[in-house]
Amino acid sequence: MASLRHIHQLMNERRVVRLADGRVATIMRVDTWFPENDTQVTVWTADNSGRGLAQVERVELKDVVGRGEPALAGVGAESVETVS
User: Fold this and answer.
1) N or C: which end of the chain has fewer CB within 10 A?
2) Distance (Å, rounded) from C-alpha 52 to C-alpha 56?
3) What is d(CA 38, CA 45) in angstroms, rounded to the nearest whole number?
4) Predicted confidence band at 51 (pLDDT cuts at 50, 70, 90)?
């Protein structure tokens, strides 16, 4: 699982990240609630059917497993660098 600082760095650099279910996404927003220390990450994922179609959803911080490599159209990457 990535640290909160690293998640913010990836968001600010507009890097593509790999989610636990294998999809690649771009982080759009990070929300942390205190004192529970619960963090939700809002991500944008491209749809396999072509440009312009996408899905925005919230995932748990633990579901962001590493940095992803964007494919040609920004969909489906094969390599991932795990963050710790």
Assistant:
1) C
2) 12
3) 22
4) low
